[in-house]
Write a structure and sequence with these properties.
This protein has an 8-stranded parallel sheet with strand order 3-4-5-6-7-8-9-10. The protein has 11 helices and 10 strands. It starts with a strand and ends with a helix. By secondary structure, it is of the alpha/beta class. Helix 1 crosses helix 2, helix 1 runs parallel beside helix 10 and helix 2 packs across helix 3.
Length: 327
């Protein structure tokens, strides 16, 4: 699979990575054996980028990655984690002492002396404008606790503020055929600055797989049940902020656009990977089969102009009004 570079840090990642929120929590139950099998399937399919966070299963996702990589010393995988969601979400908590404590915990969980890439995990908006915050992140690099740092954002405005910071290596943002706003300003700004783009929620929490109907029931401990209206965290993280009924209907139209031999999920991933400025796309997976199918999307030929136009038309007609004003 092709790899692309985070220009500012010189690090490289497969164009299709693996998001590991599913292996920690909030997506129903995944046992340790299945989680390790997902990591193995992804790695064997050419994935060289794992994205996790210290809050995914209260560290379980980080620990699972560490267990897997200990057993596969032959692999070169760039591991990115996130920090900041273990405390009250106020800017005052984003200080060097906390960063060191959070980083200590992640390094223990991951079994490393230095973390490849650490991202602030969708912090309060004011954090992106704080010189002290980014000075503290620079200190973590100087202390060799982390190799590089980035941010995970909710909005395009937050992304643009972060991109202007000289040492930000990456911006993680929701980007998919139901969330196209980043194409307007964020991706061009990132390309100009040499900042990597990590595209998350690429399947709109599974909507773009085309597998769900209006009658689908998700587990009680699945965020697609308990966060549909932003009850637990930002609503945009669940179904990309799209109303579920609208999303299911639009996803049916999207599925019909998939070329022969390509699944709707692979179409969504290929569309994202084809956007100029995207470094890596991080779908999650709950089974080895999903991991392998996702990785295969990174090897598809470019989508046709006709297909690209149809995807844009669907977004304009069905989705844009619901999401662009908020994110």
């Amino acid at each position: 699979m092709d790899e692309r570079e985070f220009s500012r840090s010189g690090q490289r990642a497969s164009v299709i990575g693996l998001g590991t929120w599913q292996l920690g929590a909030d997506w129903g139950d995944v046992d340790d054996k299945d989680a390790l099998a997902v990591l193995e399937a992804a790695a064997e399919s050419g994935v060289t980028f794992f994205d996790t966070a210290d809050v995914y299963g209260d560290g379980r996702s980080e620990e699972t990655i560490a267990t897997f990589l200990r057993g596969r010393p032959d692999l070169h995988v760039l591991v990115a984690t996130k920090m900041g969601r273990r405390v009250d979400q106020v800017p005052e908590n984003y200080v060097l002492d906390n960063f060191r404590a959070w980083n200590d915990r992640s390094r223990r969980n991951l079994g490393v002396d230095r973390v490849d890439l650490v991202q602030l995990h969708c912090p309060p908006t004011a954090v992106y404008s704080s010189d002290e915050v980014f000075d503290a992140l620079d200190t973590l690099v100087a202390e060799e606790r982390i190799a590089a740092y980035g941010v995970s954002v909710e909005t395009c405005d937050e992304a643009l503020t972060a991109i202007a910071r000289p040492n930000v290596a990456s911006v993680q943002i929701i980007l998919n055929p139901f969330r196209m706003k980043p194409l307007q300003r964020v991706l061009p700004a990132a390309r100009e600055a040499g900042v990597g783009i990590i595209a998350r929620v690429p399947l709109a929490s599974g909507l773009l797989s085309g597998k769900y109907t209006k009658d689908t029931v998700f587990a009680e401990n699945d965020h697609r049940t308990f966060n549909r209206h932003g009850e637990a965290f930002d609503q945009g993280e669940t179904f990309s902020g799209v109303d579920y009924t609208t999303g299911v209907e639009a996803a049916a139209e999207f599925s019909a656009l998939a070329p022969e031999g390509v699944t709707p999920a692979q179409l969504a991933l290929a569309w994202i990977a084809q956007q100029p400025g995207v470094t890596t796309v991080i779908p999650g997976a709950r089974s080895p089969e999903q991991a392998r199918a996702n990785a295969a999307a990174g090897k598809l030929p470019p989508l046709s102009e006709e297909t690209l136009a149809a995807i844009s038309d669907l977004y304009e007609r069905r989705i844009k009004k619901q999401v662009e004003l908020r994110w």
